[in-house]
What we know:
By secondary structure, chain A is mostly beta strands. Chain A has no helices and 7 strands. A 4-stranded antiparallel β-sheet of chain A has the order 1-7-6-3, with no helix packed on it. Chain A has a 3-stranded antiparallel β-sheet with strand order 2-4-5, with no helix packed on it. Chain A is globular and about 35 Å long. Chain A starts with a strand and ends with a strand. Chain B is an alpha+beta fold. In chain B, the strands form 2 sheets. Chain B has a 7-stranded mixed β-sheet, with helices on both faces. In chain B, strands 4-3-5 form a 3-stranded mixed β-sheet, sandwiched between helices. In chain B, helix 4 (79-88) packs antiparallel against helix 6. Chain A binds chain B through residues 7, 9-12, 15, 20-21, 33, 35, 40-47, 49, 63, and chain B through 71-72, 97-100, 122-126, 128, 157, 159-161, 172-179, 182.
Amino acid sequence: MTDITIPDGLWEDGAEAALSTWFYADGDHVAAGAVVAEIMVEKTSYEIQSPAGGTLHIAIAEEQMVAPGQCIGRIS
Amino acid sequence: MYRPDFLTAATGDRLLERLAEALAPGHRIETGHGQPAIDGDQALIRRAATSDAATPSIRLWTNRRCLVTVRAMARLPGFDEAQRASAAHGWPVYVRQTGGTTVAHRPGILNLSWARRAGAGPARIEHCFEEPMRWIVHAAGRLGYELDVGAAPGSYCDGRHNLCHHGRKLAGTAAAIRLIHGQRVLFFHASITITGDPAQDVAAIARFERSLGLPGDYRPEQHVALADIQPGHDHAVMSR
């Protein structure tokens, strides 16, 4: 299993961020480097890549709050 | 609202062109129509991904009268009905890919889109705002308008990076960091109210958002158009 994590240092402490969109469904096959999710930090969107190819396992639902370094899903 | 004598409708229209010229001398202002005008930003981002990182790619553009909301609102139950109702009031609703909440576009609002390649490494979200906001504030300053950056509580689509005049909002901003062929691209967008009545924009946005079951509780007095601000005396004389 490989974690999909939100990069550290992306935004300043205190800003609210939410997982806005998953571009694939749970169980979908994704390629390494594919943009799998988007997070919204206040009014800025940021795309999250898959660190590996394989099957996507979503851990955080859309609209849930997220933090830097947090695992939002896994690739098996 | 009090409008200084030297400002007629014609000078208000010229103000949009003057600000555009101060921002990017010689740059053409695109006149867009609805969703295709909004989607033009995706082409800008793709172009920036293959351009020199030292030079940002920009668009200056206006749109027909419409509301532009975000994907999260477009997923809400009742969106199609709210969209139809707003269109019936003369404000068709389109969707953008950046964050925030609903904003207004119309001919008196200058849209500024900015994109710069940031390379393959990590990029901080603040980087999307710092350079283009300095650029806008500087350009407005050349026309005699002393603007600043901050929140405008009670304004629609509020955030920390509004373009303001004494706490009243002239422009909302939004940003994105996109990944194109392994290159991170910083994207920034501002909708700058130059002429017209911001209270009408607020009313249209509030009506649309309330029809989605959202509060839509905005304060028109927290907004201002550039044409309703008197520039510094010396600059005003110079710019006539």
